[in-house]
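Example: Enoyl-[acyl-carrier-protein] reductase [NADH].
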Amino acid sequence: MPNNLLAGKVGIISGALNEESIAWKVALKAHEEGARIVLTNAPLAMRMGEINKLAEQCNAPIIPADATSVEDLEKLFSGAQEQLGGKLDFVLHSIGMSPNIRKGKHYGELNYDWFQKTLDISALSFHKMLAVAEKQDAFNEWASVVALSYIAAQRAFLDYTDMSQAKAVLESIARSYGQRLGKQKKVRVNTVSQSPTKTTAGTGISGFDAFFEYANKMSPLGNAPAEACADYCISLFSDLTRYVTMQNLMHDGGFSTTGISEEIVEAITAVTKQSE
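Written out as structure tokens, the predicted fold is:
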């Protein structure tokens, strides 16, 4: 049931590709909670996705922008303020892509040109967004910026390859810019480290289904679904979390602090008995 947590607030939601996207669900929830939003994605992603359908549901304008292009981001932030009639209260950065993962490159054989693209798309775009917003003085006081991350920023995961480094850079940018914008205008900047989620990007990683099940068995609450992640993002956009900033917030059902679960012990025991 809506609580009008974002009544009167305006913001930008990036990265909504289709109904499976976390950003899609954040946009719907923001609209439901009383916010007015601008949607954005890269022109190529827009052609591949269904963002026009979401725009109709949220009564939201779309401003295409390549998040690696400062010029595009300048047009996005100035255009969003014009469309929404003022400065911004929240921004969601839900942008990530690795050419190395798409091309099936193992970690030891990364294409370094592609690696740089991974970093630019998945992490440096966050810095560019915040730098453009700062230069345009685009945020209201107590605005909130959230970027979606993953626990591979801190731990080694097979087949996540150069995205691990990208997420680590993303989280570092959140801390550094959180300090800067907090001092300047009390703007909050956080990352949310979400459970493995069956989005278009997530399922493109080799072995995703096996890891999804492993994480689900390891987490006391099970994997956090995309809808719950959207709820969490809304809480971070709201005034209820005004003093939360520069944090990487784990939204993973307890996975990140679980050593081993009963389900994993039982699964390993069953396999061991079968091999005896």
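Strands lie at 10-14, 36-40, 88-93, 139-149, 188-194, 248-251.
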